[in-house]
Amino acid sequence: MRLLADLHTHTVASGHAYSTITENVHCARAKGIELIAMTDHGPTVPQGAHLWYFWNLKALPTVLDGVRILKGCEANASMTSDNGIDLPDELLCLMDFVAVGLHPLSGFDERDRVKNTEALLRVIANPFVDQITHPGNEDEFPVDLTAVIEAAAKHRVILELNDHSFAPSGSRSASSGREREFAEASLAAGVPVSIGSDAHYALHVGRFDAALAVAEEIGFTEADIINRSAESVMAHLLSRRERPTLDVGGVWEWPADRSAAQSGSAEAGEVR
Length: 272
Prior knowledge:
It is a single chain. This protein has helices at residues 21-30, 51-55, 89-92, 113-125, 145-155, 176-189, 209-218, 230-240, 259-262; strands at residues 5-9, 35-38, 63-64, 67-76, 97-101, 131-132, 158-162, 193-196, 251-253, 270-271. It is built from nine helices and ten strands. By secondary structure, it is of the alpha/beta class.
């Protein structure tokens, strides 16, 4: 099974990642990846991106060197904001892709299953939310699996199978069993599922091996996975809501002579 889209990637704007969006795109292209979602952390995560960063995503290309870029976020659930998320709906509605997750130091460190579940159910019901990231992180953020699965099925929100949850060096490997349970329940309930790299460095974009092996063991086919191609991703997203800024960035190709770009020339790229 080969996946041609990655719906979970980070840049230096997340505060603890190490590559730019351009570097991520170039590594994606080298691996044959057709589409990446740029999902930098929302402001509640320490050193996460400021709201202004997300407001200005329209400055980025829609397609760069043949790779489509979904300009989005990995926002955080919130117990204090009006919409239960650390980015406002006025901003979320303009994004190409909205992922939300539970993260350390963002208000959910008590391991309170009831609180965590209530927060995720509110997030899933938000019409601008497309994906819940690493929902099986039982070790840090336990949730009610049945309730989350039922809500995701009802609202057609993607539940992610995160590669970091299965890689031995991954920060969530202690919860790999629960992540697998979420995947099994999602398949049984017909919940949309993606497999994400959660790349924090460009060379990790499109790295799905650990999670993909688990998905195949469970019995997933390529047709069961949303990010099997750019086409399948776009079909799902556009079936859920309008994406008003999806194509505003244009299609860009870097010149064969990269020295112009390195020197900061105004002619470094060509928009079509």
